[in-house]
Design a protein that fits this description.
With 174 residues, this protein is an alpha+beta fold. The longest helix is centred in the N-terminal third of the chain and has 11 residues. Helices cover 35% and strands 32% of the residues.
Length: 174
Amino acid sequence: LIFLVATFHASAQQLKGTWMSQMKHDGERIQLTLRYRDNWNSSFGIAVKEFKGLNTKNITSGKVDQEFTLEREAGVISFTGTFEDGEGSGHFTFRANEQFTKDLKSLGFTTPDADEQFSLAIHGVTMNYVKQLKDIGYNRITMDDLISMSIHEVTPQYIKGLESLGYSKLPVDD
């Protein structure tokens, strides 16, 4: 029974889906689209150098089968697929970092669900970022707000700059 519970818990922390990418004109970034389940997708630009096991040559050469990872504090996304002439597609698996979840909870944040943890990972939310937000008074924000702030590059320095102009403790939506 213990083995069954452990197996179920581990699979609950793993998401699987598909990916597509296209090399951007600068030759250093790709536009990455991730999809899983019937209704979740995200598309964003990301530097090739952020991946382990991926390089520009393999993306832009002829047909190349590729395995690579995107390692973030919130978890690791492992990719398999094929690139050909700057375009790629395949499958991915996300494994959440349970320590990241524990650290969030120890700071007073809610425990992210699987979708939120995946979003925290793909958008590169770090524990340092979370701590800095908490230190300037943003300690009761939702996971969605935390993810949105990261997506829109709302840094603690940006918030402090607004405060110096007289805009203090603005709601996240502002």
